[in-house]
Amino acid sequence: MAYSADSPTGQVVQNILNDLPGLVAVAIVDVESGMALASHSNNPSFNPDTAAAYNTEVVRQKQKAMQALKLSGETIEDILITLSSQLHLLKLIKGGKQFIYLAVNARDTNLAIARAVLRQYADELK
Amino acid sequence: MLPTLGAWVGAALAGSTGGVAYFQRTAPATAVHELPHDQAPALPLVSQAEIAGAERVATAIVTALPDALSVVVADVATGHILTHRARSAAHDARGATACYAAIVRQQLHLLEATHLTDDAIEDVFITLGTELHVLKVLNGGQMFVHLALPRAAVSIAIARAVLIESAVFIVR
Question: What is the pTM of this model?
Answer without folding.
Answer: 0.78
